[in-house]
Amino acid sequence: MLGSTHGTFTTGLRARVVACGEAPPVVVHGVTAAPGDQDVSGRPLYAPVPDLDRFFRPESVAVVGASDTEGRPNTGITRQLLAWAERVGARIHPVHPTRTTVFGIDCVRSVGALTEPVDLAVLLVADPLPVIEELAAAKVRFAVAFASGFAETGEAGAAAQERLAAAVRQSGLRLLGPNTNLNAFERFREDLEGPAVALITQSGHQGRPVFTLQELGVRLSHWAPTGNEADLETSDFISYFAGRPEVGAIACYVEGLKDGRSFLLAADRAARHGVPVVAVKVGRTETGARTAASHTGKLTGADQVVDAAMRQYGVIRVDGLDQLQDTATLLARARRPVADGVVVYSISGGTGAHFADLATAAGLELPTLPQDKQDELHQWIPEYLSVANPVDNGGHPVGDWRGRKIIDAILADPSVGVLICPITGPFPPMSDRLAQDLADAAEATDKLVCVVWGSPVGTEEAYRTTLLGSSRLATFRTFSNCIGAVKAYLDHHRFTSGYRSPFDEAPRTPSPSLRKAQALMRPGRRLSEHAAKQLLRAYGIRVPREQLVTSAAAAVRAAGLVGYPVVMKASGAQLAHKTELGLVKVGLTSASQVRDAYRELTDIARFESIDLDGILVCQMVGRGVEMVVGVTRDELFGPTVTVGLGGVLVEVLGDTAVRVPPFGEQEARSMLADLRGRALLDGVRGAPPADVDALVEVVLRVQRMALELDDDLAELDINPLMVLPRGQGAVALDALAVCR
Q: Is the pLDDT of residue 32 over 60?
C-alpha cells in the first residue's frame, strides 16, 4: 500500500428507430427521471444520487433507545455515538420513553417531542417499524437500524424486512440497515492527506482490514456498512462517493446485490467520474452464494453474469481482502500513468526473472529497453548482467550516487510507466539504501514506483519508516498483490480514458421490429422453430429459405422452391432437441427422399405424442463456424446476451461469454475475444476466416430484441448460428424462444 503524507444497433447497421410516443416518468429511490432519461423498456439511464452529506455529517442526531445504564448494550452504543458526535460537531438528542436524562443530557419521550429538526435518527430498538411513521412526521432525513432478525433469518424475516422497506418508501426518509452496525461512526484519522479510500461493506467485520490501513498512513474518508439494504444500498453509496472530491477510490465488500440495474448505473457514474471501484464479491461458488444469502438475505446472481457486468463497467473484482486493500490504495493515490511499460529492477537475477514471469503471465507489458538505454545503464552495472528488462544490478550500490542514477535512468525511458522493485528480504545496508533511493526517486518522478517488501516481519526501519513514510511510493508485501494492483491500475486508466457510457447509446424509442415481434409472442409458451425464426426475421436476422408444410406433396413443392439439397425438420412448440428424437433429416436431394422424410418425421412425432405445427423444408446452408447466440434472464440484471461456440460444442465445452445490455459494437467484439475458441473465427487448418462483422451484427440485433421484448421474452437460443466465410454473412439454422 502507499504511504501517507451504443443509436439503434451499431454504426452501419440498417435498422431505423421511430418515435412511438413519450414514455411515462419513472421513479427510482424517490427520484423522478424525465422520459428522455429512460431506455426503450422504461428503465432509468442515469443513477439517482442521494444527498448523503447530512448522513455522514449531521448537525443533529436523535438516539432512539438511548441508555446510560451500565451493562446494557445500548449504553455502549450511546457512549460511542456521543464521542462521534463531538468529533463531527453534531448535537445529540437522547430519546427514551422512561428516562429524563442520558449521560446528563436531557432526554425526550419520543421523536415528536424534539424541539429542533433532526438530520439522523439512530434506532437502538428491537423493531424499528413502529418508529418509522413517527420519524416521517418529524421530517427526519435519515435513520440507521441496527436490529437483526430480518431477511438474513429466512422467510418470516424477509417478510418483516419488506414491511419495513414499504414503510420507509412511504415515509420519504432514507434508512441504513437493518442488521447494520456502528462502522459509519468510527474514528477516522484527520491528519492524513491525499486522495482517500471510501469503504462500503455488507459485513462490517470484513471492512476492518481496509479501515486499519489508516495505521499505515492511508487516508479513509467514509465507511458505509449497508447491512440488509432494506433501503439504502451499495449502489447508492457508490453513486454518492463517485462525486466526492476527496475520494480517490471506492472499496467494496459485497455479499449480494439488491438490484442489478442500480449497481450498473452506479458503476457507470463512477466510470464517468474516473473513480475506480474495487470489489470483493462473494458467491463464486454454490457454497459461497448460499452462505451470503443466509447472511444478508439477497440474491447473489449467477456469478458469470456478475463478473461480466462488473468488467463491462470497469469495476475491479478481487478475491481477497488483502487484494482489496492494496488495489484500492494504489488506485486512490497513484497518478495517471504516462506509459504502459513496466520495468522490473532487482538486486538478483533470480528475483527479477521470477517476478517478470508472473507479471508477463498476468498481462503486464515488459518492454525490452532500447540498446542506448542498456548502454547507459552499463555505465554503472557490470556488462555481464542483463539490463534489457528485468534490470539486474547485481547488488544496489551503497556507498555512492550510482544507485539513484540507475533508477532515474530507467524512469527516464519514455516506454516506462511503472518501475517495480521486488526486495525479497532485508539485507542491510543494501536494502536500506535501495529503499531510500527508490523513495527519493518516487518523489521526483511522475511515474509509478512500486516496491515489494518480502520480509514476513515488517518491523524493519526501511519498511516502516522509509517505504511506508513515502507519500509517493507504492509498497506491497507480496508479488501477486503488486502485480494485480498494477494491472488494475493500468487497466482502469485505459478503460476510463476512452470510456463511453453504454447508457448514452441505449435505444430510447422502439424500433419498427417491435410491433411485428409482439404479434408473434405467446405469453407463457414456447414458440415453435418456425415461429422463433419469424421472430428473428422481424429483427433483421437472416434465416435459411424455408417453408412450413403439412403434407408430403407440399413438402416436394417446397423443396423445389427452396432448392435442393434441403433439410427437413419437425416443427412444434414442444420440441427443444429434435436431433435426439430423429426429427431432423439432412442433405435430401430428390422428391422421393423428401416424401419419405416427411412420412418418417410425422410417424416419429405421432409415436412420441408430439404435436406439430408442420414440417419445415429448409435451405441447406454451406459450412461455416457454428456459434450460439442467446438471451436469458438473470434474477438481478434482467435480460443478458450470450455468445459462444455452438452446435454440440456449447454443451461439451461451455465456451461462452455473456454481457448485460445495453452495450455497443466494441463490447460485442470483446465478447468474442473472451472465447477460448476465438481462433476458429479466424480460420484454422486451411478454413477461411469467418464473417465476424456479421456475427457482431447478430449479437447487437439480439441485444436490441432483448431490450425491447424485456416484458415478453424469457429465453432465446439461436443454435447453431452458422457464421459463413468473410463477406457471406451469418444464418440462424435453428432457434428456440420462450415467452414470459
A: no
User: Which value, to the nearest 10 degrees, does the dihedral of the CA atoms of residues 6, 9, 12, 18 take?
Assistant: -100
* Exposure of 23 in the CB half-sphere (CA atoms within 13 A): 21
Best CA proximity match to 214, nearest among 197, 229, 231: 197
User: For the chain, what percent of residues have pLDDT higher than 70?
Assistant: 92
Angle at CA of residue 539, ends 534 and 543, nearest 5°: 50
Tell the residue number behind the cell numbers 463464486, with chain if given.
284
Give the whole-angstrom CA distance, residue 657 versus residue 229.
Answer: 30
- Is the bond preceding 429 in cis, omega lying within 30 degrees of 0? yes
Query: Which residue, chain included where needed, has cell 437500524?
Result: 145
- pLDDT tens for 643-697 read 999 877 676 677 899 999 999 999 999 999 999 999 999 998 888 999 999 999 9
**579 confidence band (pLDDT: 50, 70, 90):** confident
pLDDT, mean over the chain: 90
Give the integer Cα–Cα distance in Å for 285 and 303.
8
Cα separation, 41 vs 707, whole angstroms: 6
> Do residues 643 and 663 make contact, with C-beta atoms less than 8 angstroms apart?
no
Report how far residue 373's alpha carbon sits from residue 520's, in angstroms, rounded to the nearest whole number: 68
Would you say 152 and 295 are in contact if contact means Cβ atoms under 8 Å apart? yes
Amino acid at 474: A
Convert the pLDDT of each residue in 294-353 to its tens digit.
444 444 458 899 999 999 999 999 999 999 999 999 999 999 999 999 999 999 999 999
Question: What are the contacts of 590-598 at 24+ separation with CB within 8 A?
Answer: 590/564, 591/556, 591/559, 591/560, 594/552, 594/555, 594/556, 594/559, 594/566, 594/568, 595/552, 595/555, 595/556, 597/555, 597/568, 598/549, 598/551, 598/552, 598/555, 598/568
Annotate 401-431 with b (16+ C-beta within 10 A) or e (fewer).
ebbbbbbebbbebebbbbbbbbbbebbeebb
Joined together, the cell numbers standing for residue 245 give 472530491
Mean per-residue pLDDT, 165-194 = 94
- Could you tell me the CA-to-CA distances from 495 to 361, 488, 498, 657 in Å, in that order? 20, 10, 6, 19
DSSP 213-258: GGGGT--EEEEEE-TT-SSS-HHHHHHHHHT-TTEEEEEEEES--S
Helix axes of 321-333 and 479-497: crossing angle, nearest 10 degrees:
50
* H or E stretch at 93: strand 91-95
What letter would DSSP give residue 88?
H
How far is residue 733 CA from its own chain's centroid? 33
Report, as an integer, the average pLDDT of 456-473: 94
What is the per-residue pLDDT for 33?
42
Q: How far apart are the C-alpha atoms of 413 and 408, rounded to whole Å?
A: 9
Element (H, E) at 466: none
CA distance 536 to 166: 41
* Statement: the pTM of the whole predicted model exceeds 0.85: yes
Q: How confident is the model at residue 18 (pLDDT cuts 50, 70, 90)?
A: very low
Q: Check if the beta carbon of residue 217 is closer than 8 Å to that of residue 467.
A: no
Spatial separation of the C-alpha atoms in residues 264 and 258, rounded to whole Å: 12
